[in-house]
Give the backbone structure.
Amino acid sequence: MDTKNDDQNRLARRAESSKQQAQLPLYSQVVNGLEELIADDVLPRGLVLIEGPIASYYGVSRVPVRQALALLAERGLVRTFRGRGYLVARPGEDPAPLRIPFRSLDLPSRTQSSPGRGRVYEWQRVHDEIADEISECLLFGTYQIRESSLCTRFDISRTVVREVLSRLAVRGLIEKDDRSHWICGPFTAKANLEQYQMRTILELAALKDCSESGLLPDVGPMLARLDETISRPASLLPMIGRLENDLHGLMFDRCKNERLKASIVQNQLSLHVHRMFYRHFGPDASEPMLREHRRILVALYSSRVQEALAALEAHLAAAWKRSQARLKVLAVIKEPNLPDFLERMH
Amino acid sequence: LRAKSSTPLRVVRTPGTTAEYRRRAPDDLGFGVKFQELDGLEVQRRAVTSPASFDVIEHWSLTTELAWTASAIQPIDVGRIANWSDVLTLENSSNLMDELKVGKGVSPREILFIQPDGELGATVSPQVSMVPTTYQFDSFGYHSSLRQTLFPGEIESWGWLLDDRWRGLTAITAHAPIAIAEMALASQARGLMTFEDIGNLQIHEIDQLIALLIDYKHRGHFRAFWETSSQSAALLRSGDVVIESMWPGAATETGASDIVTAVPAEGTRAWLIGLSISSRCTGEQLERAYSYINWSLSGWSGAHATRYGLYATAPGAMSKYLTEDEWDFWYCGKPARSEIFDLAGRKVASQGDVRVGGSCVRRMREVAVWNTFMNEYNYLIRRWRDFMTA
């Protein structure tokens, strides 16, 4: 009887935790999954982890896996080594690299271990990777997107390609031209200014709304992540996307106004400018964004909402100025190699 | 004599380093100096993306802004620049830094001083992003025979570059940021377009200007688009072209006395060059970088640049190397008391001739626009490509 009750409770807890997981971004789901596998010694010490097989196991693209591995490295559960990928190792440990195919490990069946979505749709698997490659080229010209090349490249159907593209359009990453071709770029200084103006209106409104309705998330972990990153400048590059997502994404996650939330997502292309800049020139410990984020989070942590609002406004104004300067710098660097699904128009 | 160390100071600059300059610098400094000359766009890319590949870079003021954003250059302490107060002098009592504010676009003063918040700005501070060395005021040149087609009393204007009277006989530079600025000045002078800020064109203004230029191109207005100063000189000399945008040096290079450098009513397109130190430069190399900068301002180098046809900063130190007559001619806009020669020994003025544009101070006050990376630079170069291939 008791055992049965326990089982039921456990199942109920798992279902509950599954529901919570589904709210998390893909990379967090992968982090949690891998953390559990390491804790349970399913992934032995010294095991070499590479992106591809993990992505296929979780049914996600390689982008969230890359982020997840960087985060686990941050937490001291895995680390880089001379070879490709990461080693399962605690700090100070130096196990010999163990190369075992990921799938041949004693992994729990996917529905259990990928706590999270019962089903990962086909488009979700490729969405982030396509978005990533498009945003990489966005600043360098105007490109047409070839649907057929996307089908071949990712081995997906036209239907899935269209699903991905329409979602990218909602995010403002691509648009249709007069002849109904999907195009992207160039991301101009004008578009950048307009996005920052919109972000100032929208994000301030959302922050105010969430705080008035008591729907702000717990900023404690965000602040902890930020401080940890500040104290370890080497972790800046892998972490900076997550820090941006904390303040400009997760912060508004529980906002009841869905249209406001959607508009915020649509106007965040400007974040790509900083991301590209960091990728080429590297963020350093003096990166002003870190101090500015901290001011906002500290104010929210102590429930000083007015101060947080003022700090967010100041942050967006300063970030806009930096982005304009960074946009000019990026115009000088060489254009990245184009993926085959993009065709240059001008 | 101090022993020359095995690692020379690495100096990257635009073309124009004479053999005499290459010899003189290490001799005066007592250590090796390795000059690397790169074309303007390559200097730009180098300044921004490869700070480890140079110790000192001589580049346009507009690139400084980009190099600073990319953390590729380090603050220069003006306390260590012996002639700093002289750098700021223009001529007699006039202050270069005040005059630098004239003109549209990003003036060199706006990106010179490092502000307390780490940004570049115009407010004087003890640290700078670059030490200005030379500057010039560009316009266009034409064959004197063109004067026969002028209306009575007509004065020189940028608008002439888009004037139907010289359809098929006009050339412009192929360098996008410079050509766009000149074509904006020309279209505005002809009343074809107006701009909110001619030093920082908006997307719709760029589109409108490119459409206008494509129309001119299809009507056969442009005879050529030149890449180098020598090409522009050859075009004028051959007679294929009677009017074109022209950089200093090209006029004398033609060797022809019938080439006129215009002083446009709307003002000139100005630029300034200076020295920055790589953010990676430290220790002994950093000491040498400061020595090189100080040497550049100590007179000989400035006089050298003056005879090359440029204006140099730190005029006080140049008095040892320029005759009073040369100084009065090159800087003060006074009639030459005797013949004046350039660096190559070519005569540039006979007795009584006056330098085009008059005194340096006057020219500084007549700047229309500074060479600038407009905010929409990225968009602009792509639309310029459309024009070139149209």
